[in-house]
Amino acid sequence: MVARIIAFMLACLCLAMPASAQDRAVPYWATIRASELNMRVGPSADYKIAWVYRRPGLPVKVIRVMEGWRLIQDPSGDRGWVVARLLSPDRGAIVVGEGMAQLRSDPADNAKIKWRLQPGVVGVLGDCSRGWCDLNVGKRSGWIRAERLWGASKP
């Protein structure tokens, strides 16, 4: 009987972790964890779906927290409510701006260009400093100007 109670408590703890990992001071950056995420007009499943995201890893800015729901802003500026457990605290970024962005071997304008990225490409964000960010896109990585990324600035 004691073993069952302990197992139940551990299961409850594991289920609560994703949402509690998102309980921090707002605003903050997060990424979409799910392959499909409904953005609603209010903080409940009873509210109308305003948008459906089908892009895991897309960065979002969390601007408000309410009982398992997060008010987010996406890269295009749209705002709505999503279930907290479908967000990841991992940092990501999306390439923005006009024309191709250059992913370089080092954080310098004269460093070798490794790849060129179109606006809309999403990657995993590493460290950022002195106007440059380390970005991983699939199996490719390099340095890109911070101003070409949405999700790299302080929230």
From TrEMBL:
Q: Does the keyword Transferase apply?
A: no
Annotated InterPro entries: DUF1058, SH3-like_bac-type
| The entry's keywords | Signal
* Entry-linked Pfam families: SH3_4
Q: What is the protein's name according to its record? A: SH3b domain-containing protein
Signal peptide range equals 1-21
> In this protein, which residues make up the domain named SH3b?
27-91
The answer to whether UniProt assigns keyword ATP-binding to this entry is: no
